[in-house]
Amino acid sequence: MILDLGTGRITPVPGSESVVWIRQLSWSPDGKYLAGNGGSGSREQIVLIDVASGEMNTIAYGSDPSWSPKGDWIAYIATVRCMIVHPDGTGARSVLEKEHKWMNYTLDAPIVWSPDGEKLLLNQRQVEGYHHRVIMGDLASDHAVRMSKNGEYVLGWVPYFGD
Questions:
Q1: Could you give the number of structural domains in the chain?
Q2: Domain containing 116: what range?
Q3: What secondary structure, in 3-state letters, does the chain show?
Q4: Which of 44, 70, 91, 92 pairs as cysteine with 63 (C-beta 3.0–4.6 A)?
Protein backbone atom coordinates (compact mmCIF):
# COMPACT_ATOMS: atom_id res chain seq x y z
CA MET A 1 0.00 0.00 0.00
CA ILE A 2 1.06 3.60 -0.60
CA LEU A 3 0.15 6.39 1.83
CA ASP A 4 -0.13 9.87 0.32
CA LEU A 5 0.96 12.11 3.19
CA GLY A 6 -0.69 15.16 1.62
CA THR A 7 -4.17 13.66 1.40
CA GLY A 8 -3.98 10.78 3.86
CA ARG A 9 -5.24 8.48 1.11
CA ILE A 10 -3.98 4.88 1.08
CA THR A 11 -3.93 3.04 -2.26
CA PRO A 12 -2.54 -0.31 -3.42
CA VAL A 13 0.80 -0.42 -5.20
CA PRO A 14 -0.18 -0.13 -8.88
CA GLY A 15 -0.24 -3.48 -10.64
CA SER A 16 0.15 -5.42 -7.40
CA GLU A 17 -3.01 -7.41 -8.04
CA SER A 18 -1.22 -9.22 -10.88
CA VAL A 19 1.32 -10.97 -8.64
CA VAL A 20 1.05 -13.22 -5.63
CA TRP A 21 3.13 -10.88 -3.47
CA ILE A 22 5.21 -7.76 -3.53
CA ARG A 23 7.38 -6.83 -0.58
CA GLN A 24 10.60 -5.07 0.38
CA LEU A 25 9.78 -1.92 -1.57
CA SER A 26 12.36 0.77 -2.32
CA TRP A 27 11.46 4.09 -3.98
CA SER A 28 13.46 5.54 -6.85
CA PRO A 29 14.95 8.95 -5.97
CA ASP A 30 12.56 10.67 -8.41
CA GLY A 31 9.51 8.92 -6.90
CA LYS A 32 8.38 7.48 -10.25
CA TYR A 33 9.27 3.84 -9.62
CA LEU A 34 9.31 1.22 -6.93
CA ALA A 35 11.69 -1.70 -6.83
CA GLY A 36 10.48 -4.68 -4.86
CA ASN A 37 10.51 -8.40 -4.40
CA GLY A 38 7.79 -9.89 -6.50
CA GLY A 39 6.71 -12.90 -8.40
CA SER A 40 4.56 -15.95 -8.23
CA GLY A 41 7.14 -18.72 -8.28
CA SER A 42 9.61 -20.02 -5.75
CA ARG A 43 12.45 -17.88 -7.12
CA GLU A 44 12.53 -14.35 -5.77
CA GLN A 45 12.52 -11.62 -8.38
CA ILE A 46 13.40 -7.95 -8.35
CA VAL A 47 10.57 -6.15 -10.10
CA LEU A 48 10.47 -2.53 -11.18
CA ILE A 49 7.04 -0.93 -10.92
CA ASP A 50 6.06 2.23 -12.79
CA VAL A 51 3.90 3.99 -10.20
CA ALA A 52 1.92 5.96 -12.81
CA SER A 53 1.00 3.02 -15.05
CA GLY A 54 1.40 -0.02 -12.80
CA GLU A 55 3.59 -1.67 -15.44
CA MET A 56 6.01 -4.19 -13.94
CA ASN A 57 9.25 -5.59 -15.30
CA THR A 58 11.48 -8.23 -13.76
CA ILE A 59 15.03 -6.90 -13.84
CA ALA A 60 16.89 -9.50 -11.73
CA TYR A 61 16.55 -12.51 -9.46
CA GLY A 62 17.17 -11.88 -5.78
CA SER A 63 15.68 -10.03 -2.83
CA ASP A 64 15.70 -6.84 -0.78
CA PRO A 65 16.29 -4.15 -3.44
CA SER A 66 17.74 -0.77 -2.51
CA TRP A 67 17.92 2.21 -4.92
CA SER A 68 21.12 4.21 -5.11
CA PRO A 69 20.79 7.92 -4.22
CA LYS A 70 21.45 8.91 -7.84
CA GLY A 71 18.96 6.35 -9.16
CA ASP A 72 21.47 4.71 -11.49
CA TRP A 73 21.78 1.40 -9.60
CA ILE A 74 19.64 -0.96 -7.57
CA ALA A 75 21.50 -3.13 -5.06
CA TYR A 76 19.98 -6.45 -4.04
CA ILE A 77 20.78 -9.71 -2.30
CA ALA A 78 21.44 -12.89 -4.27
CA THR A 79 22.14 -15.55 -1.60
CA VAL A 80 25.59 -14.60 -0.23
CA ARG A 81 26.32 -11.98 -2.87
CA CYS A 82 25.41 -8.33 -3.07
CA MET A 83 24.56 -7.51 -6.66
CA ILE A 84 23.93 -4.20 -8.40
CA VAL A 85 21.95 -3.72 -11.59
CA HIS A 86 20.82 -0.69 -13.59
CA PRO A 87 17.05 -0.03 -13.39
CA ASP A 88 16.66 -1.19 -16.99
CA GLY A 89 18.05 -4.62 -16.02
CA THR A 90 21.46 -4.17 -17.65
CA GLY A 91 24.96 -4.16 -16.20
CA ALA A 92 24.33 -6.62 -13.35
CA ARG A 93 27.47 -7.40 -11.39
CA SER A 94 28.53 -8.77 -8.05
CA VAL A 95 29.88 -6.29 -5.53
CA LEU A 96 33.15 -7.33 -3.87
CA GLU A 97 33.69 -10.16 -6.34
CA LYS A 98 37.46 -9.75 -6.01
CA GLU A 99 37.40 -10.36 -2.25
CA HIS A 100 36.10 -13.88 -1.66
CA LYS A 101 36.82 -13.68 2.08
CA TRP A 102 33.55 -11.75 2.47
CA MET A 103 31.52 -14.58 0.95
CA ASN A 104 31.50 -16.92 3.99
CA TYR A 105 28.65 -14.93 5.46
CA THR A 106 25.09 -14.54 4.22
CA LEU A 107 23.66 -11.08 3.58
CA ASP A 108 20.72 -9.65 5.48
CA ALA A 109 18.66 -6.58 4.66
CA PRO A 110 18.90 -3.71 4.44
CA ILE A 111 21.63 -2.80 1.99
CA VAL A 112 22.56 0.80 2.85
CA TRP A 113 23.93 3.27 0.29
CA SER A 114 26.29 6.11 1.18
CA PRO A 115 24.78 9.54 0.43
CA ASP A 116 27.09 9.92 -2.60
CA GLY A 117 26.21 6.46 -3.95
CA GLU A 118 29.85 5.33 -3.98
CA LYS A 119 29.81 2.87 -1.06
CA LEU A 120 27.53 0.23 0.43
CA LEU A 121 27.13 -0.98 3.99
CA LEU A 122 26.33 -4.68 4.05
CA ASN A 123 24.90 -6.58 7.00
CA GLN A 124 26.32 -10.06 7.15
CA ARG A 125 25.53 -13.10 9.30
CA GLN A 126 27.72 -16.18 9.66
CA VAL A 127 26.21 -19.02 7.63
CA GLU A 128 26.42 -21.44 10.53
CA GLY A 129 26.35 -19.35 13.65
CA TYR A 130 25.10 -16.14 15.16
CA HIS A 131 27.96 -13.78 14.48
CA HIS A 132 27.02 -10.57 12.71
CA ARG A 133 29.22 -8.00 11.08
CA VAL A 134 28.94 -4.93 8.90
CA ILE A 135 31.27 -4.37 5.99
CA MET A 136 31.65 -1.29 3.83
CA GLY A 137 32.26 -1.90 0.16
CA ASP A 138 33.66 0.68 -2.23
CA LEU A 139 32.02 0.25 -5.64
CA ALA A 140 34.85 1.87 -7.60
CA SER A 141 37.66 -0.27 -6.17
CA ASP A 142 35.68 -3.38 -5.17
CA HIS A 143 37.55 -3.16 -1.85
CA ALA A 144 35.88 -3.74 1.51
CA VAL A 145 36.61 -3.15 5.17
CA ARG A 146 34.92 -4.59 8.22
CA MET A 147 33.16 -1.84 10.16
CA SER A 148 31.84 -3.92 13.06
CA LYS A 149 32.13 -7.44 14.41
CA ASN A 150 29.50 -9.21 16.52
CA GLY A 151 27.46 -6.04 16.76
CA GLU A 152 24.12 -4.80 15.57
CA TYR A 153 23.02 -4.39 11.99
CA VAL A 154 23.24 -1.02 10.29
CA LEU A 155 19.91 0.44 9.14
CA GLY A 156 20.90 3.79 7.66
CA TRP A 157 23.73 6.14 6.77
CA VAL A 158 23.84 9.63 8.23
CA PRO A 159 26.17 12.08 6.50
CA TYR A 160 28.59 13.74 8.91
CA PHE A 161 29.11 17.44 8.52
CA GLY A 162 32.05 18.06 10.86
CA ASP A 163 33.54 21.36 11.89
A1: 1
A2: 2-149
A3: CEECCCCCCEECCCCHHHCCEEEEEEECCCCCEEEEEEECCCCCEEEEEECCCCCEEEEEECEEEEECCCCCCEEEEECCEEEEECCCCCCCEEECCCCHHHHHEEEEEEEEECCCCCEEEEEEEECCCCCEEEEEEECCCCEEEEEEECCCCCCCCCCCCCC
A4: 44
CATH of the domain at 122: 2.130.10.10
Per-residue pLDDT of the chain (163 residues; tens, 9 = 90+): 788 899 999 988 777 665 556 678 899 999 999 998 876 556 788 989 898 888 889 999 999 999 999 999 999 998 778 999 999 999 999 887 655 666 667 888 899 999 999 999 999 887 776 788 899 999 998 888 889 888 888 888 887 766 5
Rg (CA), the chain: 16
The whole-model pTM stands at 0.86
